## 1
Amino acid sequence: MSPIFAIVDCNNFYVSCERVFNPKLAGKPVVVLSNNDGCVVARSDEAKAISIKMGVPVFKISNLIKTHEVQVCSSNYALYGDMSQRVMTTLSEFTPDIEIYSIDEAFLDLSRFKRYNLTDYGHRIRSTIKKWIGIPVSVGIAETKTLAKIAGRIAKKSEKTGGVLDLTASPYLDRALAITDVEDVWGVGRSYSRFLKENGIKNALQLRDAGDSFIKKRMGIVGLRMVRELRGVACYSLERCLPPKKGITVSRSFKDSIKTLTEMKEAVAAYVSIGATKLRKERSAAGVIMVFLMTNRFQQERHYFNLETIQLPVPTSDTSELIQYAHEGLKKIYMKGYLYKRVGVMFKDLVPDGQIQSIFFDRRDRKRSEKLMLVLDRINDRMGSGTLKYAAVGLGRNQRWQTVFERRSPAYTTNWDQLLKVS
DNA sequence: TCTGGGGTCCTAGGACCC
DNA sequence: TCTGGGGTCCTAGGACCC
């Protein structure tokens, strides 16, 4: 049976999460900021309407914030992750054919509901999520993922749709493509959009009808697949289970620059800890670890970036072992005298932890480390991450490298002490 | 003064091999 | 003056996604 794709997309997800717990934010322009309250990463419709752009540094819009009384929130990833899980769980009750595509989006295969009115079904999904969780979503339905994305986009923007648009066997399909700017097609980014427009292809309809060889030559196989998807030929299927990760990266910018190796080592230890926990959750081990650091990339003079790659003798997910290697790498690239703005670690060459090739000269007690990590994860899982941590992370409470969230909402859903008080 | 973070896939070119 | 023809593997960089 040929699939029918639905994309369910949470509207302005981070802002909507904040609004669920803070009703004062309703109807007002709201933005959510990135780490260290740096850039705008989510905007309410009202914020979009006063042309606050995605990704803009918050200091550049301080006037706009003042004159329009924009509500500003730090990001609260624990909250968004938790809300996302609730949305996904609710969606799974509508169909088991679900692909969790990102924190705020899921594809569904609705082909088993063909006999029903899919628009009605979409509305049921939408109202259930609104009622149970409080998050508004849009639903786009079509024969391919790319077309579903287009449907979803129109559903979100057009009042008439009521948040749901079904483009399967629709007389409005061409119309929908014609009103979709080429840069809004899934898979067309800045560079392709410029190239396509230079060649007279300005909307999704024109892209659909472009010549195969032209597209293949200039945009490769990916571009060709995209055009085929616009024609209703499904090139991407529903990925029910997520494939194992190929790499894990943890890095942060610092609010203020850092000079000392001591502080850099603490930061690296902290990021390795986060990464190693993710690694174990994936049931993987890293064969290669990379450490990188850099000065402020927005300052031209005396910019420094360096990266060190370390091949591990045996793939591991042991936090303390990984910290050791990461520190060795850091020492090689750390140069005195620079003002560092960011450091990070990457785990690569991941292997499933059941298939680790051991070596003869292995002085480590791997069984013991495995047990230790199990206990560590269990405690941090139950009592909150950071309950148990390595001394290498440092003992201070407000280290200079730590990320700042000045306007963070409380952990309504994940911390008993911070439950919403009803008065 | 203040500028996020984490991914994937594809392609071209070099090294190397037969 | 002539100067093979494939393969494979790896890597860096580009493009995209959220």
## 2
Amino acid sequence: MGRSSHITLDDIAKQLNVSKVTVSKALRGHPDISKETTLLIKKTVSEMGYTPNYMARNLSSQRSNTIGVVVPKIAHFFFSSLIESIYDTAFHNNYEIILTVSQENSEREVKHIESLLAMRVDGLIVSITQQTRDHAIFEKVKKQGIPLTFVDRVLDIPGTSSITVDDRGGSFMAVEHALRLGYRKIAHLAGYPEINIGLRRYRGFEDAMKMHDLPINPDWVIYGGFDEEAGYRGFMKLFNSGNMPEFIFAVTYPVALGVYAAVEESGLKIPDDIDIMCFGNSDVNRFISPSLSCVNQPTDKLGKAAVELTIDHIKNIDTFEPQQIEIPTELILRQTCSVNSKHAYN
Amino acid sequence: MGRSSHITLDDIAKQLNVSKVTVSKALRGHPDISKETTLLIKKTVSEMGYTPNYMARNLSSQRSNTIGVVVPKIAHFFFSSLIESIYDTAFHNNYEIILTVSQENSEREVKHIESLLAMRVDGLIVSITQQTRDHAIFEKVKKQGIPLTFVDRVLDIPGTSSITVDDRGGSFMAVEHALRLGYRKIAHLAGYPEINIGLRRYRGFEDAMKMHDLPINPDWVIYGGFDEEAGYRGFMKLFNSGNMPEFIFAVTYPVALGVYAAVEESGLKIPDDIDIMCFGNSDVNRFISPSLSCVNQPTDKLGKAAVELTIDHIKNIDTFEPQQIEIPTELILRQTCSVNSKHAYN
DNA sequence: GTGAAAGCGCTAACAG
DNA sequence: CTGTTAGCGCTTTCAC
């Protein structure tokens, strides 16, 4: 197979007439070894171009200094920012990240988690797919004693931690804002109710409506997914129903983008004919026209919390108490759903 | 440390009164083992919740079935799509991916590659940072005999493969199109010339200008980076110079988005006052207003080619001939730079 | 301060 | 078809 015979600890030990233990210790800065020896060893190591073998190291030490991550998607602003934050935090804590992508496919999710377990990651950070229903794999993770932290799309499993944004509160703020502007006919493109973010964002919508004593029109709560397609179809359904709302609260920004496309096709205008706001910021919300107001999720905090919590769990495996952390959201107001909208304060 | 004592091959071998070799072989579908035994073993394995230890497996077999990937960024449409494609292709070829993110920082890039080498990946796919100048680490990779494939942002290193899009041809097409519409005063926000995509896209721009016997105004070729910030500052520089072009060719879509923001601030209008087109599609190009025409890079083909080429190299380590593959681009025409633009055919 | 011995969990060669 | 014997390259006791 043309195996490239790597340089090993032994090679450099022989070169220096010391034992490989000495080299190993020196490389890890073990206090056993004298300064001069350590220096000499490090010099030789870099001269000979030695690269330690993590496989061997991990096998021997029974730990990997690695956190496995499973996300449903990455070509999506929320997830790519989240992942960037995860990598960043891990990097600063000297942990490696092994990222896998389930592509919203729960079978693939299971396979990836098995791989990660097989790689003997020290901990796991998971954001589940839209179709994940079966908990079995997560029970397996728990049984193997691997710290597990869910992010954003979470499952309620005892012994695991979770980091979520305050979906319900964020939704509430958004719909509240629309109501204060004077809108009464509010529709919600709601994703899927089985997914926790779908349910929780719906609840926030519901809270706001209740607080204003407004009934919820079931025809105006439309499920169908979290992507552009869902937004497009959702709006078309509203449009064709002959009973249009004044305002749409979209469960994600891709759903909102889908609505933009559909509205354009329908010949209507945002925000005059139909106003909109969504949950989730992205790099483009400010560049689309009209610029899109939204509920912002601080992905940097999410990622940081997820990694730090997982590391905490790893390092204090016997005493760690799982935590459910909720990160607050904030409203970002732009051209849609603003005081300049047609219905404002009427 | 509260180590979770995992179940090993031996455990299940003892349970079944066979040797661990038998179990190992059965699990890998080795033809040595009879069907019944294999079935029995697999049953026991899943009953006992055994997860093979890849560390041990890889150490022993001297291969990892893993490809290391280094990208400069992921919260960017081009890279996140590329990565998705890489994961997808690897998945279908039964390879694992270990992704690392250099954050456009070349020191971090080096560290990540060292980690990947230490993990004994079978091959490496790299898209370099904007500041990568030093080749040393890549020479090290070569020296260790690890197949190396560059994607998009490439380095010319003998013995390595590269997958790029036809930057020059794509740029040429874009600028050509603008010229055909009647534009003559063409500016180019050009990224950095040291980065190959910067240089190549500039060349395409140059080709088109030359073909139409138009001189290139050096004041209208502005370097400064590949992000929104660069686009914003680039446009402001043009705007404040008092000598505005009619058309801007932006080296990336974030640069174009930066221009959109700056144009809005300046009080001008796209495409009437200034028209624009960019290299690189994204999920938002069609949703911004006016929708943004661009040169599309087929990220799915890029990722697929990169992975397949790398695997090919891994499997035929002695005979493999490095390849430089160039993937063609296509023009996507939307509202900017269209026949409806002010200058069209005048 | 340094090193010898043992073993992490698995696979590869070879015997039976 | 099944098992025995040797490692893979490193870290971990525990002597010296």
